[in-house]
């Protein structure tokens, strides 16, 4: 399997603007002061941190609900009678302000009764932002800058004759620091369903610069509009859906359309309000008028309603039923015209300079596989009677095996002779309990033991690491926990590495799915693809990841790659392990760390683990006269390694992560970032729009690795961008390091389904997490993003993109 020749884009344009604050200083805003009669109530509190934390969480909800708020101060101890408390583009309606007053009062007046009998006196004031000094703080730019931009954008309709004949009107929306401009629902002529165009605005900074930037994303929002399956839950387990409601009470004072964003959750039938929004009738004079059951029956009527309008943003990641015929993704040309429309409205913002493409090695060969040293025979168990024939066909079709020997043995397509033996088992006994018992963490031990007993009774014990391909019905979301978690851990304790095939009623299993699962099993056993021969350089790659295992437990994991030898070390362990041994013994590991904070000193223990491990690696590399490349995920900067924060790092200086290690000349530190503050991108000078990966660099020493991968072989592409930042590295070595990281992102994993664009070790850390996660850990996001901003629909005529 070798990629054909593809002509990639020669330049990269980041959809990110600089010089964004100064042009906004001449905009006028409205604000009110904190009620003077409340100052005495605030002074009574002696737990100031607790009060401030509660108000901060409340404000996050208020930002979500009321997009007209540009900024609301959460710290009452910095407020006085002349300090702006709530800042808006224009005065908000009394009903909304009453809700804010009551919500704040319930927290600051936390003794009964805390029902606000009479709202405090207030008066709206008006001034230019240049005179409202409370907004002149770098720490709060992220609150009001993108919010103000979304309001300015929505003041006038957008004229885009190339994609829509009529003017397109937009409304502002907000999710804390993510601000949006969403269009009116637009009918798709092909499906007759409705969708909306969405601009997303985020205030960001970049590492080493720390200057205000505006990141612009453009996508479509789809809506639930097909009434079906009235007798089952509509949302996936533990998912919360968004509901947008507009009534006359929510309109701005100049009658512009405004949506209030609320949340719903899974119900036995359909959906229901989350707890905090169940008193809507009292709070907003809705609830009686907005019956969720009625909305689900007539979704399109509510979408276009004259008095009450209700939208249910839809995405397959949240809903378990089909809600629209519109597929995810935005067309390239649509995105191009929409971005030009934004540039015309904000011509005083400056785009970041284009990034230049670097020549990279794009060889991506799978076979022959690189087998683990000393491996001669491996067993593959197929736990299903339904896919046995398909597995054999897939093995030959994909060239994973070269020959059939005997009744059920095959020769693997590897660089050394490895025999693959296949055995088949019935999975019914294994599934007997995981589907019946109610899941929670306290029953986990018993459930896992039941799986182990069933496996032993069916297939016996295994002394060597065995591969298990398990086919079981897809979890439909009614279970609190997907049974696969229990089955995976039970199999691991019987010395079996597992991969799952979801069985859907009335659907056959595709060969591609089977191939991908087998490759995943081989990868977990320690096989590598042939492309790894290109990474065989005289150096050591070290990667640091931290995975959340339960609500309070985190697991630091360090991996080292030396040639084609890869080993892993967990926090609390002294020895290095291969990936298969690590996965099969992970259940015995019980050393974790809580997230570092001001209330604990766990950051010291974490730094000590990193320091001791790095020192050992560096000493050995120094004896061999080799370089060490230490790759760190930027997501660690918030709590674990604050030295990696944008405002603290300098591209030309080593970050003081472990001070004693700085004196070692053979250490190179690289920060990898896939977080929200990585710029979105558009292409220019592109001859073909196909799957592909590229590497770019800008004038300031930032590197961007991009990937575009077809979704299920369609003309819809999933796009990725990863920021690579070598720190304290000589300029002549930066390109080399960036190319090395890029190659590992694109060509190291064996999986055919490209749902990752990250270095190999970071990818495998996610695999490790899958073998030990606390099944009761609620890791769903409060705001589960349903917007398709990185999915592109490609049409054959879309040959040149000029943004």
From TrEMBL:
<dbReference type="Pfam" id="PF18157">
    <property type="entry name" value="MID_pPIWI_RE"/>
</dbReference>
<dbReference type="Pfam" id="PF13111">
    <property type="entry name" value="pPIWI_RE_X"/>
</dbReference>
<feature type="domain" description="pPIWI-RE module N-terminal">
    <location>
        <begin position="25"/>
        <end position="347"/>
    </location>
</feature>
<dbReference type="Pfam" id="PF13032">
    <property type="entry name" value="RNaseH_pPIWI_RE"/>
</dbReference>
<dbReference type="InterPro" id="IPR025085">
    <property type="entry name" value="pPIWI_RE_X"/>
</dbReference>
<feature type="domain" description="pPIWI-RE RNaseH">
    <location>
        <begin position="551"/>
        <end position="773"/>
    </location>
</feature>
<protein>
    <submittedName>
        <fullName>Translation initiation inhibitor</fullName>
    </submittedName>
</protein>
<dbReference type="InterPro" id="IPR040496">
    <property type="entry name" value="MID_pPIWI_RE"/>
</dbReference>
<dbReference type="InterPro" id="IPR024996">
    <property type="entry name" value="RNaseH_pPIWI_RE"/>
</dbReference>
<feature type="domain" description="Prokaryotic pPIWI-RE MID">
    <location>
        <begin position="437"/>
        <end position="512"/>
    </location>
</feature>
